[in-house]
Amino acid sequence: MTHRRSRALSKRRGTPSRSNPLPGEEQGRRPDEKRANRVPAESQGPSLYCRKQGRQRVLSVWAGPGSGTTCWEEIAVFDKVDRLREECRKALEEATDSQTLNEVRVRYLGKKGELTQILRSLGSLPKEERPSVGQAVNALREEMEERFARRQEEILHRERESREEEDWIDVTLPPRTRGWGAFHPVAQVTQEVIDIFVGLGFSVATGPELEDDFHNFEALNIPPHHPARDMQDTFYMEDGRVLRTQTSPVQIRSMQQYGAPLRIICPGKVFRRDSDPTHSPMFHQLEGLLVDRDVSVADLKGCLDAFAQEIFDRPLDVRYRSSYFPFTEPSLEMDVSCVACEGRDPQCRICKGSGWLEISGLGMVHPNVLRSGGIDPDEFNGFAWGMGLDRIAMLKYGLKDLRILFEGDASYLTHGRVY
Amino acid sequence: MLVSLQWLKELVHIPAATEELTEKLTDSGSEIEGVERPGEHLSDIVIGEIKAIDSHASRDALKVADVDCGGEGVFRCVTGAPNAAVGQRVPFALPGGRLADGTVIGEREFDGVLSSGMALSAGELGIPEAETEFGLLELPDNAPVGKDCISWLNLDDTVLDVAITPNRGDLLSMQGMAREVAGIIPGAELREQPLPGLGDEEWPVSFDGLVIEDSGCLLYTLGLAEGITIAPSPLPQRIRLARSGIRPINNVVDVTNLVMLHWGQPLHAFDLDRLPAGDIGVRSAAEGERLVTLDGKERLLEEGDLCITSGGTSIGLAGVMGGEDTEVTGETKRIALESAVFAYDKVGRTSRRLGLGSEAAFRFARGVARTKTMPALAQALQLFREQAGARTDYRPLVSGEPAEPERTVSLRRSVLQRMLMQDDLERAAAILSGLGFAETGRSDEKRTFTVPAARLDVHIEEDLVEEVARVEGYDKVPSRIPPQLYRPGTTGDMVSVTRRLRETCMGRGYLEIVTYSFVAPQDVEALGFPDDDVRGRPLPVANPISQDQSVMRTQLLPGLLKALSRNLRSGIRGPLRLFETGNVFHRTGNGHCEPVRIGGILSPGRAQLALYGQEDFLSVKGDVLSLFEAVGLRPRFEQAREPFGHAGQTAHIYIGDRLIGYLATVKSAPADRMGINRPVYAFELDLEHLAGRSEVHFGSDLRYPPVYRDIAIMVPRKAGARELAEMIAELAGEWAGHIQLFDTYEGAGIPEGAKSLAFSIAYRHPERTLNDEEVEVVHQHVREELAQRGYQLR
Question: Dihedral sign, CA of B327, B328, B333, B334?
Fold first, then answer.
């Protein structure tokens, strides 16, 4: 665009021969002016001037008084050079594609081109005048080659530009390959919680979802008909086995398999016979267990405090309350400050105005549980905790109904990005 | 449990605001789930006496009453209450006074009569349960006229909804609650409660006594009350019951409930004259025995259920619910009052099996201390005397020891230090003593305590640690990262591989779903497994929530299909790609196994909505292959059959010789059934065989460039491409590198029933660049060999 506008400008200035200045060429400075400056114009006689197309031409550098004839032959060659320059410039201007440009190059600069022919004709000049004319012709060749190069660059540039215009793509089109799918909030939270505790030094252990009564209840200090069983309405199989109501049976299996010391987390599905907006018959828990020598409640708090710093998008306040679980003694519950209102909204839907959200049940492993796992409670003790991953996901992603999580609803899982 | 603060404060002095009390209760293990002030809106209600009643001049249904409100003056008001009578004392809302629902009472004109204020019913005071007859709430004659009725009736009470953990049966009583508050609130003190005595007279009726035949009955006492007049309970008792969440019935039933609320000891009153015989027994039920309980339902009993009997006939379910036949009625004159303790597991079992919850069963299942039995009996008999005019001076019948075995537990300084990181044994002892533990031995290292009889939950040293910690507050315990966490944790192969696979699936545009592990049996059946296929015989759940969730899934496919169908039904027209990871459940010889699977399902969108072309079996195969790439494995796909798979578009997937999954175009039958009318592609892989088995090695560096040659072969239409590639590799020998099929062609120039396969063969040498001539020799050999084997080269 720039060079087009400058062409218009130079036309207005009434310099038609410079009607097509090339990019980068400075207005008002011409290659021929350099030579003109070698000898001040006013020191030359009028016969030494040649006017052509309104421009002054200095030819008398080498022509002293008394070399009349030679001088006129010389002038004829210079005229030819000037003519060629003008022709060539014009041809360059008119060439607008690579092919034409190449033809022009061949015509003027080629092996049989016009410039070459002038050089060949130098032989007919007097010996002492050959160098000056040769220089002038070579200067023209250099100038022309430079101009060709620039013109070629310009044409290629234009051609690339116009090709790209034609290859226009609507960048707002949907992509051809499929985009990223979507994660399930609970599976994602599970992964994040695992990462936090593996980072602390716990290893992942897993166990069956279809359990026997021993591992799910009795080994966890929950004898038959214990009221704690009321806390967990259980799915039974025909042979009396149960769908595990908690991930705690993995504690027992891990203790039996690995003994002490032990540092594990057990993520997984659990099942309770319950179904309403905040209870699904299947949900997810993560159980943690550390068994070693001289374990304290302080150690347990430390682990869960670290968790509360990491799991939500900002560190949360934590409080611990006394509670009851048959498999821990003492037993506690952990609350975190409400992720929605941080305790500021007495009408908060999430924390019901209490400012706190129950997030985990925890405690020091009951000696009976250690015994069930084949570990001597006089030598080792430990702590354990359990947390509902669905609940964490609900809090983290603001989900209202737990059951919709397990219906595989694509609209829901992609925030409506389906069609 | 609903705890009336008014009542609690009669039992214990609480030098703390309600807020501090609720916080302390919550922190110490009894979570406050709600704080209700049912009378918070009430104001300006006094006790009035109706001095005169006139009929309304123009409105028959209305009366005009003059109500004397003592110092407040006499108000004329209009009332429609049928029971309004001269001399009656009633609650009266002064003009400007407010009712329980917030309504403000002013002055109002009823057809020319100006009514100022209003005489009130129980409902208007917010205690509809306390109403005994329709109309005005009748106050007793001793109600002080002109006094504030709200405080006189304790209507400004605060009620705490306390969640009691299953180990703390002792807190299911006001008396236990008071004991607890005395222990956890600094400066709180129990108030002395006079214990009524029991009579010593012989029963004036012929009664043979108690026949306790089952060890599940730990203690049985039976008191006698004669000359009862059944009537409504006095108003304060009715209000108290209502505030505690129990509906007032009559003076006998109400007493048993009030005493239960006070002591935590369930009581049961039998109409003595309705007993089938002159004795009471406890025995295990006979299988198939039937009993109609108080709620009018017939219950089928099993052996192991504890029955209360009379003359051998069961008259009640011990600790759960009494029988209808011996229930107290309006005509009851004599009562046999049971105060007994039954084993928690017996009561819990029966109550759970029958789905029959009662205040009594709830308490027994959580443990009732035998020390409460006699005091509760004595208090109930006293109240029968006071409120029902009964004679109760008779010696109760007792079977069993009304005491708990003594328990002593020690607490060591070292254990306190280890668990709570503090060693103030003195302070710990003070806390325990505040909770009623009696110190019986002390040394510098250790204190020994006798456990209060009601604390059936305390047995071991850790229990004492908990008592100390919960009163002290867990915020006093420091927090530290355990020094035991000195080694890095490991995620394990299964979790790592699951993560890689889910991320790969998501990267290929699949949505992760989680579906229920139990599915509908018909959804498994629809897949058409033969009888001997374990996948067609899912494990049933014995007590499913619904038939749709009644068998354990043997594959992920039914859940994926269901989710797909649900989404299509919701109107989605574009492509859907879903995947899930999870356990499936297979029967084995003596139990079951739970393979962990990843499964995916894909359904292309409607053709006219496919902007860039449709997905198909092979594009899904690309997805499956990418999963293997993600875990560094090279699978093998074999043409195969599955009952649910398209006969010509089903592959079994192998790693080595092990079958680890399938990829199939799902047959239209199972899809149709779910209303899916589009192609469906599905795959499932066992994760066990993908975890931790990566075959990726970067051992040999392929430094020298390969030389490529192409070859096109005509083969029968159903020939497998991989087999040919393998044959070519074998023929090309040691220089054969990667062999890639790049074209398949059927049609013009190829005979019917045949196809042309074009392969690109990379020849390469590990140590030098091969030149064209030597490659040509080998390649020519391949061509000739193929030709010799009857393949037509093109």
Answer: positive
